[in-house]
Amino acid sequence: MCPMSTSSRTAIVWFRRDLRLLDNPALHAALKTAASIVPVFVLPNPPHGDLGSASLWWLHGSLAALQTSLAAKGARLILRRGDPAQLLPELAAHTNADSVHAGICPEPAWRAADASVAAALSNAGRTLHLHHSLTLFDPDAIKTRSGGVYGMYTPYANAVRAIDATAPPVPEPDHIPCPQRMPAGDSLAAWKLLPTHPDWAAGLRQTWTPGEAAARARARIFLRGAALHYESGRNLPGHDLTSRLSPHLRWGELSVRALWKALHRHAQNPGEKTFANELIWRDFAAYLLWHHPDLATRPLRPEFENLPWRNDQAGLRAWQQGRTGIPIVDAGMRQLWQTGWMHNRVRMVVASFLVKHLLIDWRAGAAWFMDTLVDADLAANSMNWQWVAGTGIDSQPFFRVFNPVSQGEKFDTDGAYVRRFVPELDHLPDKCLHAPWTAPAQILPQAGVPPGQTYPAPIVDLAAGRERALATWKSTVRVAA
Ligand SMILES: Cc1cc2nc3c(=O)[nH]c(=O)nc-3n(C[C@H](O)[C@H](O)[C@H](O)COP(=O)(O)OP(=O)(O)OC[C@H]3O[C@@H](n4cnc5c(N)ncnc54)[C@H](O)[C@@H]3O)c2cc1C
User: Ligand 1 atom closest to Cα of 250?
Assistant: First the structure.
């Protein structure tokens, strides 16, 4: 139940990254103050740079689901494409709405849009109200003792745990009254967010169901089952033991505050505690982007501004296509291409391989992730790439070079993950699955992988690549000192 207003006012609810009805503070606040609501989604034209192909695929499904759930409450979602600073004041004038309510987004493009929308509305005597709902904690409320911004996860996590003042979730409304004369909107199909020729989304369709109902169902299943084994299982890419809630959280189909509350209702076991830490990582990423708007484009540590990256287009392509000759890397990149998602452990391995072994700029890898991940999130992606590259939030930036062979052997011991996504290696014995080039001469042809034919030889010598990376990072730090 939601408190309903007794006024005759109209308010616009501007949906952005909060495509849900449960615990939606913008919707809740609008319903409290206005008698009728105009739900609107505006797609900037062209879409903001962080909306890659997989994100647009997801957005289509998520908007379709939101249209259905709004219709069940008596409301209609108005879709418009263009400049929000032009369209929202027009819609407000048309519907006689005196206010626009939206959730805060940390991306610089949305913050710039907010400033323009607020100015344009205020010229006409109307107001933009922004509500904090994407993260657990308000990024402006978390400060160091000296009033500064945290630069590392652990002190940030300690600070938010000490405060633990997440606002309680607000309820889903029973009914959403709309004005009698609703403005016209675009049809979702006309936006053509889905791929046609070629249709690369078959694997995404098989893997995911966008929308709030699917998000809630997945959260329920996870909290009752895999969450209990999360501590031991979350690092095993061959097993389905993480929540896979990331795209739902990316689009706000699931309220992170409701998830947090549900977690804390359970008697907390180590798995649930670790899972809660991951949600704090997510918050930390948004916090960093909020306070460092160029997180996606510039190293947080200025001494790494001039790392001598290699311009290796062939290496980048081999990495994108999962043809590097390093099985765990190729499995990860193919999982990404086929399903729009990759296991976290493998994201770290493939990112480290690109940045350290191939010495390719982390921004090239981050851009590929932004285009292909269904959970592509400018904050989480940029923070994690900078963490792997050692240009950001890590206290020991350059010694960490993941060895993809030992990572494979440790976390994909039975080879289930590699065999699923690199099926040409299926018949290799476990002991050389993660390093086929070490197999005795007769094994590869026997297993159906004659050297360099069905599966490539490694595109870089791992030991030499590691040494080159360490030397490069060390000399960059020396020069900057
Ligand atoms: C190079 C690299 C790029 C990444 N890019 C993204 C991205 O674009 N979008 C994204 O949501 N996550 C990103 N991550 C973080 C992490 O890999 C995914 O959030 C996670 O794999 C999603 O799967 P899950 O929902 O099953 O996670 P779970 O293990 O179930 O974790 C629960 C939730 O916590 C959050 N979370 C978990 N780990 C992290 C983390 N390291 N940083 C921030 N939030 C986290 C996510 O919202 C996730 O859904 C990236 C990690 C790396 C190493």
Answer: 11
Q: Retrieve residue 288's tokens.
A: 């960093």
Residue 458, pLDDT > 50, answer yes
Q: Which domain holds residue 368?
A: 302-480
- Taking only the tens place, the pLDDT of each residue in 333-358 is 999 999 999 999 999 999 999 999 99
Q: Is the pLDDT of residue 172 over 70?
A: yes
Domain harbouring 112, CATH code: 3.40.50.620
361, two tokens:
């700029």
Quick check: is 194 in a domain?
Answer: no
Binding site membership of 241 for ligand 1 (Cβ less than 6 Å): no
**Both 87 and 160 in a single domain?**
no
Phi, psi dihedral angles at 325 (to 5 degrees): 85, 0
Q: Is ligand 1 within 6 A of the CB of residue 276?
A: no
Q: Evaluate: CB of 369 within 6 angstroms of ligand 1.
A: yes
The string of pLDDT tens digits covering residues 26-65 is: 999 999 999 999 999 999 998 888 899 999 999 999 999 9
Per this entry, what is the length of the chain? 481
Quick check: 408 and 315 in contact, CB under 8 A? no
Please indicate whether residue 363 or residue 262 has the higher confidence score (pLDDT). Answer: 363
